[in-house]
Amino acid sequence: MAASARDWSKNDDDGEFQETRPASHAGSWYLGNAARLSSQLDEFMSRVPNKLDGKDLPISGARVIIAPHAGYSYSGSCAAWAYKILDLANVKRVFLLGPSHTFYLKGCALSTFGKYSTPFGDLAVDGEAVDELMKTQKFSPIPVEYDIQEHCLEMHLPYLWKRLEQTLGSDSSRFPPIVPVLVGDLSADGEKAIGALLAPYLADHKNAFIISSDFCHWGKNYRYRPQLYKGLVRDQDAQWASLKIQPDFKNKADGSEPKDAEVPIHEVIKALDDLVMDSIKTGDHSDYYSILKGTKNTVCGRHPIGVVLAALEEMGGDQSGESKGKFQFVQYQRSNLVEKQSDFSVSYVSAYAVL
């Protein structure tokens, strides 16, 4: 049956949507065979230590993660870190927030599907939560064809299924439903407004949040190629304009400035990503937004991250402990170590926050 958008006024008797979104990227971006995919995910997670900083994994209360959404051959091993940390023991609902790659989205949008298919089985969409959010009039429906084409949420579902299975057992009827959200182009105030709406959900210990984002996209195709040139980081694709916020490449021993040739492009990429990660770790939404504006770093999930940072700030009074509610980064990878202008690279991170 052809997929169609949900009629918001017509649910079935159980209040559920009627249609199932197909696993449109299975067999291309990741393995479509369930047994082989399960083995691959197990292998990725086996490379992650069972303890981090003396804490057993999953880390208790770590119900918010940032993880990448590229093909598993590129970012699967990086994503394993966030998912092995993710605590799903008491979770009754999982929000998935990602950017729109298939259409321009101003604001935020919610899926019209009742289920999302994976090679392992179907994950139900929480129709009640979707309806609650739609009633705020701050969300629109994701057009069906773009929902199917979009990869950023789908790429997380096999990992989510695997971790739910490890936590709750093989009976998928016990798995919590998901709330798929695309976060589009938003101003700083727009991110704060959506963050305020989501803060009560984030504060509820029965909800988990998965933020889907890759980091710096460097290359001609991405129209972003900063490198150290004449002593400053400048972007070739912006007529060699210097970035408003500059990484510090000074020699720590004597404070001397390096020559351009002494700083390879991949180290510039890392420095720009470090600036963004450091701003996220502060928990300061304004600082984060300013860093992105000043570096123009091509973090594709910048708005989903910004919304959750704003929600965490909104919850600020409810957080106890210096590190509680603050993101910790546990993995950083690049698809390629760029040396020349014809190269390209995408960066990947895994991070978590304990609430």
UniProtKB/TrEMBL annotation:
Chain positions covered by the region annotation Disordered: 1-21
CDD domains: MEMO_like
InterPro entries reported in the protein's UniProt record: MEMO1_fam
HAMAP family (alphabetical): MEMO1
Family: Belongs to the MEMO1 family.
Protein's name according to its UniProt entry: MEMO1 family
Annotated source species: Neurospora tetraspora
Organism placement in taxonomy: Eukaryota, Fungi, Dikarya, Ascomycota, Pezizomycotina
